[in-house]
Each structure stands twice: as structure tokens, then as C-alpha cells.
Amino acid sequence: MSIRVVLADDQALFREAVAAMLARDPRLEITASVASGDEAIEFVRAHAVDVILMDIRMPGTDGIAATKEVLRLRPDVRVLVLTTFDLDEYVFGAVREGASGFLTKDAAPADLADAIVAVAAGEPVMTPRATRALLGFVREGAPAPDVRSVLEVLSPREQEVARMLASGASNDEIARRLFLSANTVKTHVKAVLAKLGLPDRIHVVIWAYEHGVLRPQNASPLT
Question: pTM of this prediction?
Fold first, then answer.
């Protein structure tokens, strides 16, 4: 089944070029091309969507606000931000609102298609450098609440898995260190994401910093 993709960008020529490139990939189906965050929101209200390629700077509702509203309406949708500038504070605003990562607009067509497939599967798309910068923004936030209260929604084993996810551990590393099977780890990861209401591993890192589960010196960037 093809991944249903919406392009949201205020530049018509850019949308047409991206749509033409992605249409060649049999894994993808371009279901809509819209010129604003408001149009993206309205489309999601009425249609099934898997991934939105979201520009940040658009007239009216920008990409940050549109990301927040889209995910409020449809938490199952994944948002992949397209930006002109790497490590942009607006991009990080969208990630904080639930976007699953970002690529610059000069990304190769194959890389863009692979990124769409990755976020549709629940995998984040962000470089280690960008993750480190994102965590810098997170550390400037408000003081964390009591750690025990934010962890109590998880079972003891899920708490262990959440801490390891937040420190950048892969599923294989978690399995090896906790003496679990690969399938058991996948089950725990899915449970952690579901119980915390998080879309992917990047947001486990953000959650862990914001809630004091990990301190800066304990975490490493995700790859």
C-alpha cells in the first residue's frame, strides 16, 4: 500500500517539482498539494494522510502552528519539515510540536523519498548534529517536575527501556543490555511511545530532558 503524502508549501513551482520527483517512487502517492498551513489542516480534516511535507514559513498559519493542529486532529499523521536553512529555530519549534524530523530543500530526491518512508514507519529523520542543537533548546526550558510522577505511567521494564531510548540506545543495544529478544524490545518500545503519547524516538529524548528523566551529561544524540 502506497504512503499517502501531502505537500504543503507556498511556492507553487517548488511543490510541482517535488511532486513530479516523488511520483516516480512506487512507494509514495501524492494525494494533495497545498499552499498554506490552513489548507493542510483542512485537508487532514477530510482525508486520510500518512505524511505531510511541511514548509515552515508560509502566510497565515505557519508550519509550526499547522504541525501542532494537524497532530491534534490526527496523531497518527507524521510531519516531515522541509526547510531552506539547516538548524533553524523554527524547525525546532515544529519538532517540539511533534514533527518527526526535517530535511533541507536541496536534499536529493532519493533521500527525500527514503525520509518519507522512514517517518511513515515511525522512525525519526534528524542528523546527530541537529539533535544536539535541539537538545540545547530543550535545556533552556522550564524546571522539570518530579521524575517519579512522570514515570509511573510506565511499568518498571518500560521505564528501563524509556531511559535507554532517551540515551540514544538502538533496539539491538537495549536487547543486549537487558537480555531481551528483539521482538520483546519492539513491543516495549511501542508501549513506551503509546503510553507517553510520543510519535518517535526523537520525542522520547525531548520528553526525557523536559521531565528530568535524563540530565544533559547522560544522553547522547540519536542517529
Answer: 0.72
